[in-house]
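Handout, section 4.2: multi-component inputs.
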Amino acid sequence: MRSSVRYMDPTQLLKGVLDLAVLAVLHTEDGYGYDVLRRLRSAGLDDVGDASVYGTLRRLYQNGVLTTYVVASDEGPHRKYYALNKAGRDQLAHSAKVWRSFSATMDSLLTEPGVSA
Amino acid sequence: MTTVDARAAEVADYLAGVRAALADLPPAQLEALLEDLPEHIAEVAASDPQPLADRLGSPVSFAAETRSAAGLPAAPPPPPSSPSTVASSTAEHVRALAVAANAGLGRLLGYERATLAGPPLRPGWWLARGLLGAGWLLFLAGAISPGALSYAASPGFFAAWLIDPLALLAGAVASTRLGRVSLTNPVARALGWVVDAFVAVAIIDILWILRAAW
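Output:
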């Protein structure tokens, strides 16, 4: 999108932190794809798309930071649950540290005199 | 067809569309990527009553987003229309050659590209083709029936010596006017091509006559 005034686009921001968000959700509790999406949305990431979450889960799984197991269900389809393994927990810890430091830097920039909204 | 069947068919169609848009991926990668997509889409269909495409976007855009989130390369551009890659690479070479020639000839003419010299030269061509076309028509008229022109110019009507310059002037004006209109009017453009073809024949004929005269 081209315009002379560019406001920050949450979908662009989300791209950089979706891995971290998915890892955090799965750290709280194992989940299947649709469930992960729903939890991200109810946490406030309204703009997160089905395809982004699905693709991210598949990539994290391929990268070896997630494990999967299938849970049969009486009504409806069997569900494949994703869970963090050791590598996943390490990645979460490391990424969380990077995010906190980044976020603190942005916060302090935005609290400089004159910037506060 | 029941609503449930219709929904299942919608899911199947959607999945087929996504799969088709990812068909360029190596089979193993494709299967790994799509492994639990049927389950995911079925969940969406079961819990969200709106049409799948309203929520998920088109299968093609869903595939593109999945691909990008999964860190896979974007879909290659659609294959060229030429039947073989050999032909298309030949076409590529010819195109590159044409671009280079365009640039080289353009420098010679003092333009960035030779094709840029075309538009400013157009009015000159319109004028030239009008003069040539009218001149040739006069020549033909004279050659077919030598008496016709002098008859038209016969007593009190026209001075005979006025016929040629007036015809040439009319040709130049009409041709220039046609050229100007043809910039925006497709009918005039088609007519302009007919005139161009006519004048091309005239030029060839004139060259032929000159050659014979030598």
